[in-house]
């Protein structure tokens, strides 16, 4: 039987890494097919080959029986294949409309018809259900909004095959739902959709079948999801069983460690106050643009504060300087891995030791042995997939980059408050469980931990207390016994009648 | 400052407004500045910088760099003269010069885009190679032109304004339009803003870079021809250091060296600031050595003002 | 042994030095020695050039230095490399500014040549019957080059001596030594003094004066009202004389690269091969060339 | 090519290997090249570029740019001479010169880091301001030194090798160590890789940039003093265009203009390539105008070779 989209014997190697070995499987017309696997299993690599971004060493892709030979993304586009890449690929200085039609502007004799551009994009966005003015500059959008734009970019084109690489990693459930409806519609139109996600619920909600990769090999292929269970997929992915992924365990909650009082900033005009205690995991939930990331950046001193104060163990932390925060024991894993997290062009080891190295550098001279040991230790304990600690971090898969950033702060001595913004964004199930476990043991050591997440099950699964943000302020807080999905969601939804429209700078 | 004044000063067109104010102040305080003659002289003095800035804007906006412009200007001017002499036809001579400049630009583009050699090094190399060729082909001497109508390119006037100024204005209009209204212009900004995203979106990045450098070469040839006509000969030493002036003008005008940001109004203002600074210093009879210092301070001041502006813009 | 002589100049792009080299080459052919030509734009390059000559086994060199104050350094470097040295065009001085008498020199006095320019302009003013008080003078200046300062100062001195009022001399500082820069600077002066009808112009070299002449043309001053006299007499000036209609560029003071190039090379050869030291000081003079006699003057000086 | 040869050529140290081969070829084919005298002369000729390249490497690695180095070198040399003359003490004169260079570098750093003005524009401005000050303070003429022991700085030798060469070598060692083995060096590279991420990881980016420019100023002063001693006077026109040579040397040596990548071995090779090119061209008596062309071609060739190398490295 020939499939609509068929991968046969795809192989791809990088120096020191066999990213894909001999991958073959097919997907029928009008089907949504999941692609699963641990971080670094080779999912994105497969998508990159499908999009013409990278070329396979051997093997071939067939669409409707015809062999495809993509030399560039333009070739793939011409064959009506579009892709949402794992990392956002937008041009911040251009408008939403321009970004959506980049590479394919409506133009006569090279002159762009801006009216047509804006109208066309506007109507398509409305069609899809995205509420953004096409004339807004992308720079003014939040990550979540950008992600939606990125998805729109792929979906708007008249494609036969659409591949989505972790499209929901920075979407809240509300936007995710918009996306799922969209995918259902595309399925009805007979498109083939290849869907990558680390969220199993989504796979079961959306997919007609799925393929699991492990270490670049095909671990399992399910033509239908009938009879397939979660546990089965998890064990196919990680090679072992994970019974309770959250694994929450109670612990003693102590004194207030982090106290935020009346904090405000340019993009968060209303003052916000909250506290986190020793041993406590405080979850922050909210919809995209609720202001959680803004708040955490202010707490950390990444952006300059308007008013308010932050103190740790009763001692105030100087405003607007991450260094002061780090020295006071307050650290942040940022949400935007690419722009705020990784240091491109530098090794894994360098990325891990960037902050902590000052502790083992008498007179500023590095102890290379200690640095190497530190890096190797984390590569092992966090199971970071990399050929060596000397690998350039940009060559790591998304999830493994995230682990490196976490390792950066775990390496710091004397951390009292750990803020993690979307800590498991792009992290596979197995690693998620490990990270949660790590958070619990850190909390047990007496740290106060703040977790920002747009995944409601995650927030509810691991937090001792949840703060819900809406429109730039904390709308409600819930203690673990009071956790209730509907109540939390309700608190996150803005009261449409009372809320002022969100102002955007274009 | 009242709110609305602040808004005007710090708004999108803030640079233009600041410039207009500075211009008014200079007009009122510097004798002989605001005369028709001086204005025309001033504009003529910025023709070379202004013309070359049009395409340098594209080059910088796409995150590239071109140091070879001065050499191309000098050599194309010489080619225009030599080819006119050799063929006995000025139009043919000009055509050959334009062809030559375009060719050098094309070579730059191909080397940079296809061989993936850093633009700074490539154009530093062609800057020297072309200058060397200019010196070799003329034995280091100025080449004169036999046909006096060649001078008319620069001396002729339309509505009382010399042709070179019109050419500059026309190029400002054309390239302003291209930047804002065409696929080419938007793709240029996209490449500068996020090369990876542009490539993935199907923009032919290599081809765009080749085109941008080719255009740069063409425009340098035009500037070179006008310059040769103004100085009535082709000189192998002309236009040294032009690259830095042009890049300064662009950066002054808000073109980002990190790519992705450019506007023709800014570039025009940048060019005029440089021209006015020179003009006023000479009108005020400021000593040559002090001119260096003043030039440096003006540069700093202009960028500082613009930074303050855009910073408070970001804070709104 | 084979004789090898270095000839180091400060601005190899300048036609003047091309000519000096050309004539030195003639001497080399005649006597059968090797001539090594090196350009050295600044003190550092000059030091390396001398080392380089030493390494190649040269026995002596002739130099036109980028700066006369480099004197002690050049002498020391030459000694260290065991090279004989003589200077051309510009004479070396010590830290106090006194000429280094021990180094043989052939040159022209920058001040003298400037004076020749001034005198030529004054004569032309007289010939045209202008009243000096109504004439403006453009001093195209490039003050960071000491020779340039000396030359224009010489011209000014001669003009003043001929009764030209000092307050009518206006400074046009060129940002670079090319024609375009001189043109732009001179244009400002002309526009600032729009009331003045008659203009004279002088500067460092032909290119500078040409810039000023172009400026008068661009603001519409007829050639009959302009007197520009340059220095050098190379192509840019000749091109001007070849134009069908006379321009404001009336003349140039030609200095002969032939003697400077040929004779110095010959002197150095004699010094090395026959142990015959060159004369301690030879001063050559510039000669004024006008539109109608430039060919004769050039022949006279041995060029062409 | 056999596998192992390929591995050597295209490996980490490929640039060094290519250079070694080129060096061997030149030694065998160019007469008088491989003599002790010529080697010492060659090394002395690259002292200024080599010294300044040490800190320029840091500057580029942190994604900055410094065009003011030539002016600082020239002026500090003059200051050394003038201050020695004025105070009658050479050590005091040198100290004042070093202080002066350091101060200019510090000003660069503060303006760039704190006022957030583009480094290109800032240093283009200080380049002109400092050059202007140099000209003003000396009235455009070289200043001689009265005390002959000043020349000894450059003339003195240790183990038969002149002091300036030792100074250069010492600085290579020091800055090579600083780059790879200290927090300062690693933070420099981190800033170049991603300034925002580095800031959030606790690197004091502003402070680092100020330090880098300050060091650059200090090192320029050292180069300026040695230069003044070598040429036995302080010259306001010295070291013009130095910035481009130094940046070329760094880029030739694999320092990325996009920041985050640098190695001292590369920089040393880059410096030597430039020095050898000049040296050999003069030894071979290549005409001045052709030297321009050859210089350009060598630049292109060197980067091209390196690119081919690192490209096939990526493909393995
Ligand atoms: N350009 C590259 N150079 C070297 N190695 C690479 C490169 N791109 C990917 N790899 C390696 O290939 C392997 C597969 O990576 P890929 O990005 O496909 O993983 P993934 O399944 O998408 O993981 P994640 O869930 O973390 O996104 C990883 O080990 C990664 O480090
Ligand atoms: N660069 C920017 N310029 C202007 N507005 C911005 C910018 N970045 C974010 N915003 C706006 O600030 C608000 C808060 O965004 P923030 O990213 O803090 O929200 P969040 O709750 O963390 O949601 P997300 O899940 O998107 O991160 C949003 O309305 C967003 O549109
Ligand atoms: O610099 C000048 C040169 O232009 C030539 O005129 C000869 O003398 C030198 O001093
Ligand atoms: Mg991936
Ligand atoms: Mg967020």
UniProtKB/TrEMBL annotation, chain A:
Q: Supply the SMART domains for this chain.
A: AAA
- Record key words, sorted: ATP-binding, Cell inner membrane, Cell membrane, Membrane, Nucleotide-binding, Repeat, Sugar transport, Translocase, Transport
Q: Does the keyword field hold Nucleotide-binding?
A: yes
Q: Where is the ABC transporter domain?
A: 5-240, 253-496
A single GO molecular-function term is: ATP binding
- The answer to whether the entry has keyword Cell membrane is yes
Q: Which Pfam families match?
A: ABC_tran
Q: Which SUPFAM superfamilies match?
A: P-loop containing nucleoside triphosphate hydrolases (SSF52540)
The portions of this protein that span the membrane are: none
Specify the protein name: L-arabinose transport system ATP-binding protein
Q: Which organism is it from?
A: Kaistia defluvii
TrEMBL record, chains B, D:
Report whether Lyase shows up as a keyword of the record. Answer: no
**One Pfam family of this chain:** BPD_transp_2
Q: How does it sit in the membrane?
A: Multi-pass membrane protein
- Family annotation (InterPro entries): ABC_transp_permease (IPR001851)
Entry keyword annotation includes Lipid biosynthesis? no
* PANTHER family (alphabetical): ABC TRANSPORTER PERMEASE PROTEIN YPHD-RELATED-RELATED, L-ARABINOSE TRANSPORT SYSTEM PERMEASE PROTEIN ARAH
Question: Where is it localised?
Answer: Cell membrane
- Main location (coarse class): membrane
Name this protein carries in UniProt: L-arabinose transport system permease protein
Upper classification of the source organism reads: Bacteria, Pseudomonadati, Pseudomonadota, Alphaproteobacteria, Hyphomicrobiales
Which UniProt keyword terms apply here?
Answer: Cell membrane, Membrane, Transmembrane, Transmembrane helix
Q: Which domain of life is it from?
A: Bacteria
Which residue windows are transmembrane per the record? 14-34, 40-60, 67-86, 92-113, 158-179, 210-232, 244-277, 289-308
CDD domains xrefs: TM_PBP1_transp_AraH_like
């Amino acid at each position: 039987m020939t499939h609509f989209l068929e991968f046969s014997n795809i192989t791809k190697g990088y120096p020191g890494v066999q990213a894909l070995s001999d991958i073959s499987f097919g997907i029928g017309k009008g089907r949504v097919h999941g692609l699963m696997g641990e971080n670094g299993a080779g999912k994105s690599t497969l998508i990159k080959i499908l999009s013409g971004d990278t070329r396979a060493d051997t093997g071939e892709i067939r669409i409707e029986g015809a062999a495809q030979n993509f030399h560039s993304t333009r070739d793939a586009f011409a064959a009506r294949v579009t892709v949402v890449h794992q990392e956002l690929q937008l041009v911040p200085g251009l408008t939403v409309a321009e970004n959506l039609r980049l590479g394919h502007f409506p133009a006569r004799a090279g002159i762009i018809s801006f009216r047509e551009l804006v109208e066309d994009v506007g109507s398509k966005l409305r069609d899809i259900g995205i509420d953004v003015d096409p004339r807004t500059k992308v720079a003014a959008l939040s990550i979540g909004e950008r992600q939606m734009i990125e998805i729109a970019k792929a979906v708007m084109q008249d494609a036969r095959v659409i591949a989505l690489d972790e499209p929901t990693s920075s979407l809240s459930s509300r936007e995710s739902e918009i996306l799922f409806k969209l995918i259902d519609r595309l399925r009805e139109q007979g498109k083939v959709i290849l869907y990558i996600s680390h969220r199993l619920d989504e796979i079961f909600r959306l997919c007609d079948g799925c393929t699991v990769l492990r270490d670049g090999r095909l671990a399992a292929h399910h033509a239908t999801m009938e009879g397939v269970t979660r546990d089965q997929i998890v064990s196919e992915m990680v090679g072992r069983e994970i019974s309770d992924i959250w694994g929450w365990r109670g612990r003693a909650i102590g004194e207030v460690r982090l106290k935020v009082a009346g904090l405000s900033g340019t993009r968060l005009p209303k003052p916000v106050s909250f506290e986190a205690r020793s041993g406590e995991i405080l979850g922050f939930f909210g919809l995209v643009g609720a202001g959680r990331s803004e708040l955490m950046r202010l707490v950390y001193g990444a952006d300059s504060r308007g008013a308010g104060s932050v103190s740790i163990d009763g001692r105030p932390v100087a405003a607007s300087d991450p260094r002061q925060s780090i020295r006071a024991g307050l650290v942040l894993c940022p949400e935007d891995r690419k722009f705020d997290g990784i240091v491109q062009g530098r090794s894994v080891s360098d990325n891990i030791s960037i902050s902590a190295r000052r502790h083992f550098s008498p007179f500023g001279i590095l102890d290379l042995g200690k640095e190497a040991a530190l890096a190797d230790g984390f590569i092992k304990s966090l199971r970071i997939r990399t050929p060596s600690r000397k690998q350039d971090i940009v060559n790591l898969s998304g999830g493994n980059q995230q682990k490196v950033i976490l390792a950066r702060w775990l390496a710091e001595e004397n951390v009292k408050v750990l803020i993690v913004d979307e800590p498991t964004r792009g992290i596979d199930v197995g690693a998620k469980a490990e990270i949660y476990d790590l958070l619990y043991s850190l909390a047990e050591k007496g740290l106060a931990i703040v977790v920002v997440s747009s995944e409601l099950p995650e927030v509810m699964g691991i937090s001792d207390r949840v703060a819900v943000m809406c429109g730039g302020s904390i709308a409600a807080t819930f203690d673990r016994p009071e956790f209730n999905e509907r109540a939390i969601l309700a608190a996150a939804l803005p009261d449409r009648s009372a809320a002022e429209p969100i102002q955007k700078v274009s | 400052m009242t709110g609305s004044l602040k808004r005007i000063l710090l708004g999108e067109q803030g640079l233009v407004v600041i410039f207009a104010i500075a211009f008014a102040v200079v007009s009122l305080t510097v004798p002989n500045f605001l005369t028709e003659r001086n204005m025309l002289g001033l504009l003529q003095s910025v023709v070379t910088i202004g013309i070359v800035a049009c395409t340098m804007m594209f080059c910088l906006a796409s995150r590239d760099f071109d140091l070879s412009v001065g050499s191309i200007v000098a050599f194309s001017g010489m080619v225009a003269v030599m080819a006119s002499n050799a063929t006995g036809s000025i139009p043919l001579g000009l055509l050959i010069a334009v062809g030559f400049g375009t060719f050098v630009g094309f070579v730059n583009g191909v080397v940079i885009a296809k061989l993936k050699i850093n633009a700074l090094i490539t154009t530093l190399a062609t800057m020297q190679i072309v200058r060397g060729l200019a010196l070799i082909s003329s034995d280091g001497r100025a080449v004169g032109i036999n046909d006096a109508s060649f001078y008319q390119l620069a001396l002729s006037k339309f509505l009382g304004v010399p042709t070179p100024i019109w050419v500059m204005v026309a190029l400002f209009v054309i390239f302003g339009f291209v930047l804002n209204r065409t696929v080419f212009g938007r793709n240029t900004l996209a490449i500068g803003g996020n090369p990876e995203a542009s490539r993935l979106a199907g923009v032919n990045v290599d081809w765009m870079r080749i085109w941008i450098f080719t255009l740069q070469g063409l425009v340098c040839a035009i500037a070179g021809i006008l310059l040769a006509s103004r100085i009535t000969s082709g000189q192998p030493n002309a236009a040294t250091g032009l690259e830095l002036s042009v890049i300064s003008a662009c950066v002054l005008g808000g073109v980002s060296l990190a790519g992705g940001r450019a506007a023709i109004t800014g570039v025009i203002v940048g060019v005029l600031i440089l021209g006015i600074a020179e003009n006023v210093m000479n009108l005020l009879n400021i000593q040559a050595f002090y001119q260096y210092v003043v030039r440096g301070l003006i540069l700093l001041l202009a960028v500082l003002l613009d930074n303050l502006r855009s910073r408070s813009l970001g804070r709104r | 042994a084979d004789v090898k002589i270095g000839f180091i100049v400060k601005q190899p792009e300048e036609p003047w030095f091309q000519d000096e080299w050309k004539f030195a080459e003639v001497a080399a052919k005649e006597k059968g020695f090797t001539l090594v030509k090196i350009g050295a734009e600044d003190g550092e390059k000059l030091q390396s050039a001398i080392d380089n000559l030493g390494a190649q086994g040269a026995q002596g060199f002739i130099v036109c230095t980028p700066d006369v104050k480099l004197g002690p350094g050049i002498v020391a470097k030459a000694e260290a490399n065991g090279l004989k040295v003589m200077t051309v065009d510009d004479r070396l001085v010590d830290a106090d500014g006194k000429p280094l008498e021990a180094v043989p020199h052939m040159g022209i006095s920058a001040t003298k040549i400037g004076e020749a320019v001034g005198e030529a302009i004054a004569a032309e003013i007289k010939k045209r019957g202008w009243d000096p008080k109504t004439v403006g003078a453009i001093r195209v200046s490039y003050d960071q080059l000491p020779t340039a300062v000396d030359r224009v100062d010489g011209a000014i001195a001669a003009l003043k001596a001929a009764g030209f009022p000092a307050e009518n001399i206006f400074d046009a500082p060129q940002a670079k030594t090319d024609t375009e820069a001189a043109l732009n600077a001179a244009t400002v002066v002309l526009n600032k003094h729009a009331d003045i009808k008659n203009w004279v112009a002088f500067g460092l070299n032909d290119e500078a004066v040409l810039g000023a002449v172009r400026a008068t043309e661009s603001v519409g001053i007829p050639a009959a009202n302009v007197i520009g006299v340059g220095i050098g007499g190379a192509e840019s000036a000749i091109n001007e004389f070849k134009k069908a209609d006379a321009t404001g560029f009336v003349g140039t003071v030609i200095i002969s690269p032939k003697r400077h190039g040929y004779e110095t090379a010959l002197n150095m050869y004699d010094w090395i091969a026959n142990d015959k030291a060159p004369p301690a000081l030879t001063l050559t003079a510039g000669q004024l060339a006008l539109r109608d006699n430039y060919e004769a003057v050039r022949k006279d000086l041995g060029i062409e």
